[in-house]
Design a protein that fits this description.
The chain is built from 6 helices and 7 strands, in the order αββααββαβαββα. It is of the alpha+beta class. A 5-stranded mixed β-sheet has the order 4-3-5-6-7, with helices on both faces. Strands 1-2 form a two-stranded antiparallel ribbon. The N terminus is likely disordered.
Length: 176
C-alpha cells in the first residue's frame, strides 16, 4: 500500500509545484493549459454570482464579467437575469457581433426575460476596442430596452460595458 502511494506521488515530481493539475479521462494528472484554468475560474466566479445578492456584491459580478468578456475579440451582448430580491437567476449571452458592433433585438430580450420570469436585469456588453465609453447607440439601446421592459414590469438595474479590465456602469454614471 505504501509503495502504491509513493509511486503515485512520484508522478508529481516532474511537475513544477506552481502548476495547476487536471485529471484526464484515463485518470492521469497533467498540468492544466491556460484555457482550462480560465474556464475553471469562470465556473468559480459564476458560482459566486448565481444566487448571490448582486447589489451587495458588485465586485463578484464585475470579476465574472471581466473574466467572461474582457478579452473577447468580438462584441457580445448578454443579460444577467435577477429575481425580485435581485439574486442572480442566470447569465445569458444573447447576441454576438463583430469587432465594433452587435445587433440587439429588444423583442428577443423581452421574450427571454418572460421565459425566465425575471423581475430585473443587468444588461452587459463588451467593447473589444478597449474603451469602455458608451456610444450614443449604447445609450439609445439602453433607453429602448428600459421602455420595452417597463411594459412588462421588469426593471433594468444597470448596463455594464466591459473593456479589458475596465467595467463601466451606466447607473454609476447617471445614464440609466
Amino acid at each position: 500500500m505504501a509503495h502504491d502511494l509513493l509511486s503515485s506521488l512520484d508522478s508529481f515530481v516532474a511537475v513544477p509545484s506552481s502548476s495547476l493539475l487536471v485529471r484526464d479521462r484515463a485518470g492521469e494528472y497533467r498540468p492544466a493549459v491556460a484555457n482550462e484554468v480560465l474556464l475553471a475560474a469562470q465556473r468559480v466566479l459564476a458560482g459566486r454570482m448565481r444566487g448571490s445578492e448582486v447589489l451587495a456584491s458588485p465586485a463578484a459580478v464585475r470579476d465574472f464579467l471581466r473574466a467572461r468578456l474582457g478579452a473577447l475579440p468580438h462584441e457580445v451582448f448578454a443579460v444577467v437575469h435577477l429575481d425580485v430580491q435581485f439574486r442572480v437567476l442566470d447569465y445569458v449571452e444573447m447576441f454576438r457581433g463583430t469587432v465594433s458592433q452587435t445587433s440587439v433585438y429588444p423583442r428577443e430580450i423581452v421574450k427571454e426575460t418572460l421565459t425566465r420570469n425575471s423581475a430585473a436585469l443587468l444588461l452587459v456588453h463588451n467593447h473589444p476596442s478597449g474603451s469602455a465609453e458608451p456610444s450614443r447607440a449604447d445609450q439609445m439601446l439602453t433607453q429602448t430596452l428600459k421602455n420595452a421592459l417597463a411594459l412588462v414590469d421588469v426593471r433594468i438595474i444597470d448596463h455594464l460595458i466591459v473593456a479589458g479590465p475596465t467595467v463601466l456602469s451606466f447607473a454609476e454614471r447617471g445614464l440609466l
